[in-house]
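Q: I'm writing up a methods section and want to include an example of the input and output format. Could you take the sequence below and give the corresponding predicted structure tokens, formatted cleanly so I can copy it straight into the document?
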Amino acid sequence: MANRDEEILVDSGDDYDSHYVATDSEVTSMRSSIVDYVYENGRRYHAYHAGSYWGSNDEKAIDAMEICHHLYGLLLHGRLHLAPIKNPLRVLDVGTGTGSWATDFADLHPGATVIGTDLSPIQPSFVPPNVYFEIDDCCDEWVYKSPFDFIHVRGLYGCVADWGKFYQQALKNLHPGGYLEQAEMSVTPVSDDGSTAGTIYEIWGQKSLEAGDQFGKTLRIVDESKQRMIDAGFVNVSEHRYKLPIGPWPKDPHLKTLGRFFRIVMEESLEMWAMMLWTKILGWSREEVEVIFARMRDALNNPSIHAYLEISVVYGQKPEI
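A: Here is the clean output for your methods example:
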């Protein structure tokens, strides 16, 4: 794994022979209206609080989420979290997506009750008996009757308008001594050798960040979460930063594997990430955005571009009484 301050060495071999082609608030019960999805620009979006989240939830998006969950497992060498939690009895996974993290955690901790929340009911039906999924918007008031020992958050960039309120609610809903952990990803691909300069990656990052700002839900939380946790009152706050390569260009075998998987995630996720924000928020036409997607796919498969994104994993503890 490459930490933030370590330069990733480039492999002189050729791992780009074959171009990868992607294949074709009160808690609300899962009633029919929630699955009355919204369809726009060929993608499917959540119906509950429609328009409040930019990502699609169709099968292609679900596949990308599953690969991304595996990717985080590789990045953290099989660990589901970094926070030093002990014997958690109640756990909350905010923005659970496909529910894979919640399910894996429930398997490892059969004595814990794990609740996963999301805007979309895309979680599986057959899960461990100690995991439950609820349709909920984390931007609404949290109405849980009992506090949690651990709250897990991953990939909520562009989802929250008031992060100060979010962290305050997380703090309020933790037992004293409980932990909040948040993993987030940057948006703009960068490089150690300058190979991303002047490429489509710069346009992608600039316009995506601009869209998030106009949407009122920042995509910059990867660089803000540590300080925001401290400001909210969390103690023992710790941040771990990682470089996540795009493509199999690194020399290090572990980073090369990460890069292979992440290139797939990027290819699968371009439309999921950007179609709504770039068309509805920035005002681009679908055809204009698809040109950007084509240029991005070319860059993703260009072995001379040694790009990576940054991952931030931050955890903090609610003070003991």
